[in-house]
Design a protein that fits this description.
The chain is an alpha+beta fold and about 625 residues long. Helix 3 runs antiparallel to helix 5, helix 7 packs across helix 10 and helix 8 packs across helix 9. Pfam families: PEP-utilizers. It comes from Actinomycetospora straminea. This is PEP-utilizing enzyme.
């Protein structure tokens, strides 16, 4: 792997500012990286005057060429819903740029008071319609998203034989199968775009409701911490926890069928499956139950659905099978594996009641009740949508694109199926056109000599870029970072920026972040930089990572605490930690840089402090 060689510091400069985008120099061995991404994703000269931050929550790794779609299309949809459909008063959309393979974003605020007022009137009418009919509209959303999933699952890569099937002729279809190559590929891209529009249709409104309640609480109770606000909406049963629940059912079945001895810590999935196949009727029953659970509940990515190589449980059984031994052991011991939802709900109601009683008037109490009620109504969507969108749909999407890569490899254009992800989607279309022409003419594809060197070079570029340390932010420091959504999701505030700039000196053994979930524990650290290594986490360890994914629920059952570099009190790591009743500190910015696997650490989820003990 080539080492980074930027012409300017990759982090904050000695003068206490972040590098400008134009100051980011090249990385040795990664020359030409720009060709992997569209022109509109690159920094422009005028971008030096704006503040950007590295979106390591969604893009913690270098982005391969095809996966550039997973920033382009989501930000297209988020901005459209926020700015053009629902007319959020104080914000438009999010712009993104890619430099050295890393995604930076900035929000476009609305600052003109007259424009804010005009947009507010539209927002009240449009968003008000959704809030007033939330359950009915959400039911319609559920039908639409399931229909989209059915459509992506129905996409087929056409088979190009020596002759088309006779039925094409006798049925007078009117077009040969090579036509379907690009039509079906386009269909995948179009469905992915439509999914993201549906994805953000409710999501931004859900966050909007929470932000309004959050700001009310901050004004009414200045001493109230972010975590306290979040705990008033905890204890919800959401779809994103269903895959973990299915694992627990499978563990229970293993105990019931006397198969527990096969589920041992560290066993490879293939070895366990072979052992089950040899256990007669009991083994067959368990394997049949596994197949039922897999569709759809194993279509959950080990990442967050933004990279093709973050495989789903269905593609790689490592993560679920790493969790099963502990679940089996707990069930044999008679332990209750259910999440403490009832306890969280009781605590939620207690906290809300105590603060409500402090309000001075009936009007304030009525406003509190209305805002909290709306938050609790919309919150389940904020987590549940992820299973359908980033996981089930996106798993199927990447599987279909991989199948097109398989066809290109079969025809000799690419060396292997996954090489398709090193081409931009428009380049994939060119490669498919090459196949269309060759099959139609009886000639041969010319793409091998063109695309295979490009793919090989891009793999080298990705390797070189992986060694570059991206600055946490670029551009001039804003006067204040007070966007509540940015704070709750990414954990970025004025204090965060000061820490990034080095204004707050911390000793080498201390990491500070957001108190995301209460409790204090000690344990050995497991620093996880690659999401595909999640299966290596062991019982009782403290998970330290750049960012967690909601699909890591099974792992949350075995760890003592979670610590992340990025994230706020409403990030998925924080939400999941609270639902599992375990301490968490998020948004530290530097935990993975200061903590090593094997370090003994104390996680204080009440104060947001992580201490390296030895």
């Amino acid at each position: 792997m080539s080492s980074a060689a930027p012409s300017a510091p990759s982090g904050p400069t000695p003068g206490g500012r972040f590098p400008l985008p134009s100051e980011i120099g090249p990385v040795a061995g990664a020359e030409g990286w720009e060709e992997m991404y569209p022109y509109f994703s690159r920094f422009q000269p005028e971008d030096d005057g704006r503040f950007w931050f590295y979106n390591s929550m969604h893009f913690p790794e270098v982005v391969p060429a095809f996966d550039g779609l997973t920033s382009e299309i989501p930000y297209t949809a988020i901005g459209a819903n926020t700015a053009r459909l629902f007319s959020f008063p104080t914000t438009l959309g999010i712009e993104y740029r890619i430099v050295n393979g890393r995604v930076y974003i900035t929000a476009n605020p609305v600052t003109d008071p007259a424009q804010v007022e005009a947009r507010l009137a539209h927002f009240q009418e449009r968003a008000g319609h959704y809030y007033a009919h939330w359950d009915q509209l959400y039911a319609g959303w559920q039908q639409r998203i399931e229909a989209l999933i059915a459509e992506i699952e129905a996409v087929e890569v056409p088979h190009l034989g020596d002759l088309d099937d006779l039925a094409v002729v006798t049925g007078a279809r009117g077009y040969a199968s090579n036509h379907l190559l690009r039509e079906e590929f386009h269909r995948c891209i179009d469905l992915y775009s439509k999914m993201w529009h549906h994805h953000t249709e409710f999501l931004m409104l859900g966050y909007g409701a929470y932000v309004v309640f959050f700001e009310f609480c901050q004004q009414a109770f200045p001493e109230m911490g972010d975590q306290t606000v979040a705990r008033m909406v905890a204890g919800m049963d959401v779809t994103m926890y269903r895959p973990d629940d299915e694992l627990k059912k499978l563990a229970g079945l293993a105990v019931e069928l006397d198969l527990a001895d096969l589920f041992v810590e560290g066993s490879e999935p293939d070895k366990v499956l072979s052992g089950l196949a040899e256990r007669g009727e009991a083994g067959r029953r368990w394997l049949a139950a596994l197949e039922v659970a897999k569709d759809p509940w194993f279509h959950v990515s080990v990442g967050d659905g933004f990279y093709h190589h973050h495989l789903s449980w269905a593609d790689d059984l490592t993560v679920p099978f790493a969790a099963l031994p502990r679940y089996v052991e707990q069930i044999r011991a008679g332990e209750d594996l259910t999440r403490p939802t009832e306890r969280l709900a009781q605590e939620r109601d207690r906290i809300a009641g105590e603060y409500r009683a402090l309000l001075g008037s009936e009007d304030e109490q009525a406003a509190f009740d209305q805002m909290l009620g709306l938050c609790r109504q919309v919150f389940p969507y904020i987590e549940s949508h992820k299973f359908y969108c980033e996981h089930w749909f996106t798993t199927r999407f990447f599987q279909k694109i991989r199948a097109f890569g398989g066809l290109l490899a079969e025809r000799g254009v690419l060396a292997e199926a996954d090489d398709v992800f090193h081409l931009r989607h428009l380049e994939v279309e060119d490669a498919l056109a090459d196949v269309q022409l060759a099959w139609a003419s009886g000639g041969r594809e010319l793409g091998a000599r063109h695309w295979q060197p490009i793919v090989a070079r891009r793999k080298e570029i990705l390797g070189a870029l992986a060694g570059w340390s991206p600055p946490p932010a670029l551009g001039p420091v804003p006067e204040t970072m007070n966007d509540p959504a940015v704070k709750m999701l990414w954990g970025i505030t004025d204090a965060t920026i000061e820490t990034w700039l080095g204004a707050e000196a911390l000793d080498a053994d201390t990491v500070r972040g957001y108190a995301a979930s209460p409790g204090v524990v000690e344990g050995d650290a497991r620093v996880l930089m690659n999401v595909n290594d999640i299966g290596s986490v062991r019982e009782g360890e403290v998970l330290v990572c750049p960012v967690t994914a909601p699909s890591w629920g099974p792992v949350f059952g075995k760890i003592a605490a979670a610590v992340s570099d990025i994230g706020g009190t409403m990030s998925h790591a924080a939400i999941v930690a609270r639902e599992y009743g375990m301490p968490a500190v998020v948004g530290t910015g530097q935990a993975t840089a200061k903590i090593r696997t094997g370090d003994r650490v104390r996680v204080d989820g009440d104060r947001g402090v992580v201490t390296v003990l030895r």
